[in-house]
């Protein structure tokens, strides 16, 4: 990010101090807020900005020579190729430019032979003083300078090493004051790159034996020990994440060469899935860490193949049919030492599935795509032959309502994609697709076979792959809901399934079925003898299983079921039954939802909690979700993300997603593969009950400390470390905010790879204004809040943790939508909300009431008929009930909101600000990239006054009203409840036609 120019150039006037800056993140990394100079800290006044010494980093380019081609502000460019730069110090060249009265310069760099660095076509905008340009990043320091300011005396030398690994800085300056002396001039002296993650500077302290010190990145971001400054003595001192170590060892001392190879991988297993093989293995160990694995495949007609992977799982697809393949794995460390081969593993492929060709993700910025969220099994029934009621069909009352829980399917969704497109949505979030197994599993959150799509959702010609391909053909994305935290209580096929005591006496023969050899549960196929699709004969045994650890297995407990039947020990899997191996599953009930046990305990009796810190579990899940990445899904909505440690996400699951998307679909697709997590927080606080580890924004950041190589220990260390740091010492970001009226390039260098659902706005959407003010209050704590997924209610909760679907009224719904579609973030609508479907109804009551009475009722009756959409928000024809649905006030409202948002880039990807604005829900947004510069002034419901905005012609996208601003001020009258105004600088005019609210 390039800082704004000040009248004295780009250097701040004073060093930041505790009195002059607001509290920042860990290490006191703060943005400068210039204040009055303090006698103890103020540097000498800067000169009148007549020179600039430009340092350029050479190690990346490695040119034979370097030229600086420049134009002083308001002046002419030098003659190509510019002035020759001279050697400054290791890896740096420099040129000093006389700027006269100019306050800065435009600059580019060249080798003099036709190769240029012109900042990707934008030129560099530089100020005065010492300036560094390193790999496209501009900072302010002298990387080769002397400390200066103090004559050598009889004192000693302080050698300072400063760690920037967790800060993401590309340069570092040391600003210091010898004891009894004066402070160096801001920003201090440039530190030298010493080794990866470390910067070094030697300071002659003269007669002093210590100094005060602070560090900065040259662009106004400081580490000043949380406003207290550091005290550093003579000798060698390290400063790492706020920890000062005196008389330290040199962190960059040459290490003994690494000649020790990693151990050979063990536990290599290969499992065929059609013409693909999933290979997993246990991690190797190494004295300095394994960096990658080499997998060698032999077999088939294509010869030997060697593949490098960063995780401990490989999905090898596109193989030959009915062919045996053998795999061996070797581990490689950073020094290139290679382990011995693992023991071989062999798998024989089957036949190529009769499925459509795998698709490719659309690979575009997810912020451009408003999301429509459907529960697939409850949306539209396209094929009645795959409808299933399950074991609770009668008890729930669904049978009496002729409403089987598995009713909607992919065929129905494909048939109604035009309905969703006609509303203007270009992304569809669907509930989990993996084969489920529970007593009431239509929603998809009780995974059983994670490698298989649930057959109750598929039909001939309407497989999951068909749905993905059909959506992509319409320019629509598919976001798949995924579960990494738990399986069903019956375990996970291919990992572990528990054996229970299912005595088939007169009492329990209705529940536990007789074992039928050769029959495999798939939720759809009816087992001939029992006549059930929910057959469970494979789950029970009357013999004590080998290795059973459940106490008194199979013996009566002395209790009775609600029906009066005898209960047996170990009849139901549970975390405390001893029926699950501790290595693969956790063995406790959750107690404190904001405590550490939320990571390591079961959430519910039918959700068996994976031990996600175990490599075997990680392999199983990574391999499973590789399958869906390969099919071309556009992103993952991550269920129960908060119940897995951030360290595990950042070390294992998120890198595996990125690696696989890159491998299969390319780097651009990986950059836009959208992962958004459910980090449930049901309070109105910025931080969830003060627990940073259980707050949504926490999951958007990389780690900022080193933890144990063991994932379970690392999780505990991270939890304790971050809780100790507290809420006031967390990372902050300006990525969502404008710099005045200017858009700036966001800094995603510390982004974890996971965006999140905006739980704070969700919890406060009982009132749009409340949601707005609570939402923006949290935005500095997300890595980039412009990616937040925003919704009013969902399949779980309404605002304020309500268990009912939102019933605030049509006007309030319209107001909420107007805010969501224009404020930062990605607007998301739960199916049916466009007609206030099931408003006020209980969202979920399990099998204790019919689904038709809940917020998860079947929606297809409202979609009957035909609908065709030629473009987003453009319905060409509609007949029957679906035409009536599309004519409803909120349906028309969201249709036009999508049309307006799609036409104004600032509303999709822009940063925002409320600076200089008077109004209840009023803000300005801007997005600038290449030839696009989109600037919009927005007010929802209420009047607003904007001051300090660019002069020019503004056109309201809602009414077409034109305003010419000549004094930086625009006043907008109140548009009314649910209505809004979107004044776009040099805008396209009125977008769409007036409706019930936008008029």
Automatic annotation (TrEMBL):
Q: Which residues form the Fibronectin type-III domain?
A: 261-352
Keyword annotations for this protein, in alphabetical order, are: Carbohydrate metabolism, Glycosidase, Hydrolase, Metal-binding, Polysaccharide degradation, Signal
Q: Is Plastid given among the entry's keywords? A: no
Could you tell me which residues belong to the region Disordered?
341-367, 381-403
What InterPro entries does this protein map onto? CBM25, FN3_dom, FN3_sf, GH, GH13_cat_dom, Ig-like_fold
Signal sequence interval, chain numbering: 1-22
Q: Which Gene3D superfamilies match?
A: Glycosidases, Immunoglobulins
Q: Which SMART domains match?
A: Aamy, CBM_25, FN3
Q: Which PROSITE patterns match?
A: FN3 (PS50853)
**Which coenzymes or cofactors are required?**
Ca(2+)
Q: What's a Pfam family this protein contains?
A: CBM_25
Name of the protein in question: Carbohydrate binding domain-containing protein
- Record organism: Streptomyces broussonetiae
